[in-house]
């Protein structure tokens, strides 16, 4: 079987494979042997050189003694001219292989005897001594003897000895290397190999493998320290692995473990057709728990919830906390979707048992998104996202319930996801359009203002209302961009209105909550108005009660800056939020807009009439202008006038339209209804007002 690593692309330059590292023992031998060999050779050479010079000196001394002795033997025959005896004495020393030649000279310097033993191709040395003859009172120098000798024998012996020493040295070095290799393997190589083997095995599966070294030397001590470190590290890694895959607060598996669990479920399923129930749980208003009781109590609350989930499931089920107030419960095998839904409701019931926090009973509430898939389904790994779609529906439509994923929810999710991804393109291609709806004086029926309302003319989905895409704009972080977009269009519209002879008409734009925390908004508004040469006092900025309480100090500062520029501040949808009278007193407000929910049943609802009357009386006392939203019938307008409401807005007067249609309508040239509907077929009352 070929390894994947062997299947290389011939067209691609592969990096060279790393060379095999040299072992410590081998490196030590390669570093030691040359030095050992050189030292051995130098020592042998030194011994031989010393021996050579010693032999040279001995030979010189021996030849000198031979010359002295021969001179004494030759003295009398030489003096008496017995030259044959002289020659005979010379011949006696020729057996010495070191002597090459000998000669005797008389007192006149004439050679009377010469003996040559052998020719020599090497340099020779020569010893010369005088021959003295003594006889009684006679003492004369009869002549001179000279002996030539060669060092060839010494050279030969020395060379033989040197070669012998070299061979012995090499053999000794080899023996030393073998001994060194064996001892190094025993005392160094094997301990290191044992430690390296333990390290490699530990790297393969993460387990601790001790190095089995029994010696008491430094390597034994190192092995014991290594084994102790392995044990400590293994325990630490086990703890880190557990921490990496489990929630530190509740001890439940975390998000990292989820994908591994889904793979395990797919592999361990008894049958590809077995059903898996995935419950995505999100606690309702957990932020309120933290804000009311503190974060420590919030943590205790989450621990209680995790314990209840553990107790509510079977041993084969899997419970995890993904983070924050999100939990997951997986039942690996259910008979059908109805059984899975009943299981999810059991989890809700278990969660909803009261919990005591700071001596107060708190009833937890949660929403569950349920997705059921077969074990062999390719979408099994997408279960978290699928269940999240159902959870989103439960949270937005009916908190505290179980929402089961179906085709309709998936279609809604795909549409929502497509729109969210298309937001940058929508801005870049100018797909967002600002439409305008008139604000009229209820007495004179004169148009005194327009409200800027955003629409999205999508190339595939047609005109989309703000109720669908504004949450997506907010989630994508494009609130500020959209506000600047609407502000720019409103200033351009004010220019057109002035050119059309309607400079008195003001335009209102809605500010999202996030904009009230942006202290640069006033500066940008002033610069935008200056660019289009319109007065900031021609703008009205509408805010909601909810946006005020999120950051009261920051919102108040931003509103005062806008107010100083001359812009009008209106409180929109009054009565549907916190309805705090303190807001009317604390913030620089000019107008209050009554939500259409209180207008729709008038004049038939006495309760709504009473509420509007109270709001009108309060607004009059505080000097605030009152605006009624959602007026669709003449009797509603009459009731508003009778209760002191000054301004009105709704389908009775005009539907939201593009600026061109509004300008024609203001000129008294009514735009055919069919044209407006053809341009914007999806317009519906729930987002058109």
TrEMBL record:
<keyword id="KW-0812">Transmembrane</keyword>
<dbReference type="Pfam" id="PF00672">
    <property type="entry name" value="HAMP"/>
</dbReference>
<feature type="transmembrane region" description="Helical">
    <location>
        <begin position="162"/>
        <end position="182"/>
    </location>
</feature>
<dbReference type="InterPro" id="IPR000160">
    <property type="entry name" value="GGDEF_dom"/>
</dbReference>
<dbReference type="InterPro" id="IPR043128">
    <property type="entry name" value="Rev_trsase/Diguanyl_cyclase"/>
</dbReference>
<dbReference type="GO" id="GO:0071111">
    <property type="term" value="F:cyclic-guanylate-specific phosphodiesterase activity"/>
</dbReference>
<dbReference type="Pfam" id="PF00990">
    <property type="entry name" value="GGDEF"/>
</dbReference>
<dbReference type="InterPro" id="IPR050706">
    <property type="entry name" value="Cyclic-di-GMP_PDE-like"/>
</dbReference>
<dbReference type="InterPro" id="IPR029787">
    <property type="entry name" value="Nucleotide_cyclase"/>
</dbReference>
<protein>
    <submittedName>
        <fullName>EAL domain-containing protein</fullName>
    </submittedName>
</protein>
<feature type="domain" description="EAL">
    <location>
        <begin position="416"/>
        <end position="670"/>
    </location>
</feature>
<dbReference type="InterPro" id="IPR003660">
    <property type="entry name" value="HAMP_dom"/>
</dbReference>
<feature type="region of interest" description="Disordered">
    <location>
        <begin position="1"/>
        <end position="23"/>
    </location>
</feature>
<feature type="domain" description="GGDEF">
    <location>
        <begin position="274"/>
        <end position="407"/>
    </location>
</feature>
<keyword id="KW-0472">Membrane</keyword>
<dbReference type="GO" id="GO:0007165">
    <property type="term" value="P:signal transduction"/>
</dbReference>
<dbReference type="InterPro" id="IPR035919">
    <property type="entry name" value="EAL_sf"/>
</dbReference>
<keyword id="KW-1133">Transmembrane helix</keyword>
<feature type="domain" description="HAMP">
    <location>
        <begin position="186"/>
        <end position="238"/>
    </location>
</feature>
<dbReference type="GO" id="GO:0016020">
    <property type="term" value="C:membrane"/>
</dbReference>
<dbReference type="Pfam" id="PF00563">
    <property type="entry name" value="EAL"/>
</dbReference>
<dbReference type="InterPro" id="IPR001633">
    <property type="entry name" value="EAL_dom"/>
</dbReference>
<feature type="compositionally biased region" description="Basic and acidic residues">
    <location>
        <begin position="1"/>
        <end position="12"/>
    </location>
</feature>
């Amino acid at each position: 079987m070929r390894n994947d690593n062997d299947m290389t692309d011939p067209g691609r330059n592969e990096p060279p494979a790393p060379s095999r590292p040299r072992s410590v023992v081998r490196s030590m031998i390669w570093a030691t042997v040359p030095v050992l060999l050189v030292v051995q050779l130098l020592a042998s050479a030194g011994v031989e050189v010393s021996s050579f010079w010693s032999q040279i000196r001995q030979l010189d001394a021996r030849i000198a003694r031979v010359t002295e002795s021969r001179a004494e033997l030759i003295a009398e025959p030489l003096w008496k001219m017995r030259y044959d005896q002289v020659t005979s004495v010379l011949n006696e020393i020729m057996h010495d292989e070191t002597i090459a030649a000998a000669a005797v000279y008389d007192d006149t310097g004439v050679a009377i005897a010469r003996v040559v033993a052998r020719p020599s191709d090497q340099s020779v040395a020569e010893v010369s001594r005088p021959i003295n003859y003594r006889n009684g009172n006679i003492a004369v120098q009869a002549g001179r003897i000279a002996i030539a000798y060669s060092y060839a024998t010494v050279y030969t012996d020395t060379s033989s000895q040197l070669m012998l020493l070299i061979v012995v040295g090499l053999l000794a070095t080899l023996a030393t290397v073998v001994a060194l290799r064996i001892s190094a393997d025993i005392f160094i190589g094997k301990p290191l190999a044992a430690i390296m083997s333990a390290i490699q095995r530990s790297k393969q599966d993460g387990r601790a493998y001790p190095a089995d070294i029994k010696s008491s030397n430094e390597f034994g001590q190192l092995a014991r320290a290594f084994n102790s470190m392995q044990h400590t590290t293994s325990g630490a890694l086990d703890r880190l692995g557990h921490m990496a895959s489990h929630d530190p607060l509740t001890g439940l598996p975390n998000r990292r473990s989820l994908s591994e669990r889904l793979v395990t479920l797919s592999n361990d399923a008894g049958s590809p057709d077995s059903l898996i129930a995935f419950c995505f749980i999100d606690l309702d208003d957990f932020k309120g728990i933290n804000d009311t009781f503190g974060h420590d109590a919030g943590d205790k609350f989450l621990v209680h919830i995790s314990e209840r989930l553990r107790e509510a499931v079977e041993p084969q089920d899997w419970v995890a906390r993904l983070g924050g107030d999100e939990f997951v419960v997986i039942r690996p095998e259910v008979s059908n979707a109805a059984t899975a839904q009943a299981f999810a409701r059991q989890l809700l019931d278990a969660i909803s048992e009261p919990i005591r926090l700071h001596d107060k009973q708190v009833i937890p509430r949660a929403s569950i998104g349920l997705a059921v898939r077969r074990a062999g389904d390719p979408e099994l790994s997408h279960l978290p996202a699928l269940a999240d779609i159902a959870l989103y529906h439960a949270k937005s439509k009916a908190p505290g319930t179980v929402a089961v994923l179906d085709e309709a929810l998936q279609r809604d999710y795909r549409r929502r996801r497509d729109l969210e991804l298309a937001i940058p393109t929508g801005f870049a291609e100018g797909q967002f359009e600002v439409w305008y709806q008139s604000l009229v004086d209820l007495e004179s029926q004169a148009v005194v203002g327009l409200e800027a309302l955003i629409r999205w003319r999508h190339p595939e989905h047609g005109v989309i209302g703000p109720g669908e895409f504004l949450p997506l704009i907010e989630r994508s972080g494009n609130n500020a961009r959209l506000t600047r977009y609407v502000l720019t269009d409103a200033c351009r519209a004010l220019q057109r209105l002035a050119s059309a002879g309607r400079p008195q008409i003001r335009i209102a734009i809605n500010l999202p909550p996030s904009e009230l925390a942006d202290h640069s908004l006033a500066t940008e508004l002033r610069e935008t108005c200056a660019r289009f040469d319109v007065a900031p006092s021609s703008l009205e900025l509408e805010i909601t009660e909810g946006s005020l309480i999120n950051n009261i100090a920051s919102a108040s500062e931003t509103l005062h800056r806008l107010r100083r520029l001359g812009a009008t501040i209106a409180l929109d949808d009054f009565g549907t939020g916190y309805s705090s009278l303190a807001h009317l007193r604390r913030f620089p407000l000019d107008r209050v807009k009554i939500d259409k929910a209180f207008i729709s049943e008038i004049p038939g609802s006495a309760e709504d009439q009473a509420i509007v009357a109270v709001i009108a009386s309060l607004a009059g006392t505080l000097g605030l202008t009152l605006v009624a939203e959602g007026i669709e019938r003449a009797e509603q307008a009459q009731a508003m006038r009778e209760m002191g409401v000054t301004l009105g807005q709704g389908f009775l007067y005009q539907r939201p339209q593009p600026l061109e249609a509004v300008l024609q309508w203001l000129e008294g040239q009514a735009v055919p209804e069919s044209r407006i509907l053809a341009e914007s077929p999806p317009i519906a009352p729930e987002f058109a007002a």
